[in-house]
Amino acid sequence: MASHKYEFFGPPGAFVVTTSISIITYLTYFLLTPSGSPPPAFLSSPLTYLQTALSTSSLFHLPTLALFLAYFGFTVLLQYILPGPLVPGVVLANGKHNLYKLNALYTSLTIFSLLAGATLFFGGANWVGWVYLWDHHLHLITALNLFCISLSTFLYIYSLRPGPHLLAEGGTSPSPLFNWFIGRELNPRPLLSFLDLKSFCELRPGLTLWIILNISNTMHQLRTTGSITDSMILVNLFQGWYVLDSHFHEPAVLTTMDITTDGFGHMLVFGDLAWLPITYSIQTRYLALNPVHLGPLGVLSVLAINGLGYYIFRASNSQKNLFRTNPSDPKVAHLKTLQTKRGTKLLISGWWGTSRHINYLGDWVMAWAWCLPTGFGTPLTYFYVVYFAILLLHRERRDDEACERKYGEDWGVYRRIVRWRIMPGVY
Length: 427
Ligand SMILES: NC(=O)C1=CN([C@@H]2O[C@H](COP(=O)(O)OP(=O)(O)OC[C@H]3O[C@@H](n4cnc5c(N)ncnc54)[C@H](OP(=O)(O)O)[C@@H]3O)[C@@H](O)[C@H]2O)C=CC1
Ligand SMILES: CC(C)=CCC[C@@H](C)[C@H]1CC=C2C3=C(CC[C@@]21C)[C@@]1(C)CC[C@H](O)C(C)(C)[C@@H]1CC3
Known about the structure:
Layout: H1 10-31, H2 40-44, H3 46-55, H4 62-81, E1 86-88, E2 99-101, H5 104-121, H6 128-135, H7 137-159, H8 176-182, H9 197-203, H10 205-225, H11 230-248, H12 257-260, H13 266-279, H14 282-289, H15 295-325, H16 330-333, E3 337-339, E4 345-347, H17 351-354, H18 358-371, H19 383-407, H20 409-417
Antiparallel strand pairs: 1-2, 3-4
């Protein structure tokens, strides 16, 4: 047991992360309030405040759990019935590849169109759906927690069936708890053969729910103040664009480390379906409770920051994806490369010559543009920039180790040519 090399500090780390991420989703509800975020009562006595809040709130509500299950089922149905090409993923350790039906953009556009229709024809901001989502936010947090724990446990048990399915390297440790957390099976497709659960969860129900929660928060602001502030519009546009962009570039998700290398366990299940929609919508929830007016200069500044971040993020990711799928395309054919013994080449000029993860920098710059519109009245809305920096720093180290294993000494040569990890000249 002692000789196994664990990530995330092994089983104790898995336990701490599992409990903390769940608690954090609840804290987003109890700490963002109209009378301060966090409220003065929390600052003077945190434990008493939380004890009182918990004892006076009902956490569980069966209809909300049922509604989430219906929503999840609807996204599965949409993947099945909407058209989309069948695309092969990367070649796996067994020499084969899986096929993925790509129609995430159609799925999210269908859901957003249905919601737009309901809003237009059934009461605008007062449509029962928006009011329900706002009123039952705490119940939704519980529903997501319960659903994720159940799904992770089901996936763990399902992965114990006899072969020939592929297991993720990290998920075969001697600790069942750690394997449950990190994920045993690489590409589980239980029950429905067309449904690759990991890529489905990574791109569909959680990301779309994030935007639905943002709209619900916006509708709350409209109901309570009679208007929507410029800050709220901007955060909605930025985050909505980010999600639609990921759906438009759906094939790119098939080459991310989550899909190619990691198992599908509680970390990703919870990250995709609970953590992402609840914590990434903190900014709009705060703005719904505390409207902020930016004015023309503020608007232009955050537009510029988001534009810069998006440009770096999209241009660098697209350059690598194009290079990996069609290296003779004129847009990438002129770039300098390093031939590796593994057979594939590594870019050493263009975006990927500036730093080894310049795409992370672009994503992080965008993170600032999503938080700054909330002003400086609370540190809580800046949770995303801090968490995301930690996630990206850790992810860069994990990818670096994975590439070292993949490319051997060639990766050392590449590291000497492209010296910076994320931010050229700094890190
Ligand atoms: N909003 C969010 O919460 C999150 C967003 N993201 C975003 O997801 C995007 C994808 O990130 P991620 O999956 O971590 O990794 P990357 O898209 O950065 O891909 C890493 C892989 O790219 C290949 N590669 C590395 N260097 C080169 C090079 N010089 N030339 C060619 N190929 C190279 C390697 O794989 P190989 O050589 O095998 O092709 C490596 O394993 C990022 O933009 C990130 O910001 C990620 C996590 C969370
Ligand atoms: C603390 C905890 C449980 C963290 C889980 C991390 C997850 C929230 C993220 C891991 C990788 C992700 C990716 C995206 C969203 C966040 C998670 C799930 C992503 C889908 C966002 C949109 C991008 O365009 C992307 C498709 C490149 C990206 C892929 C990785």
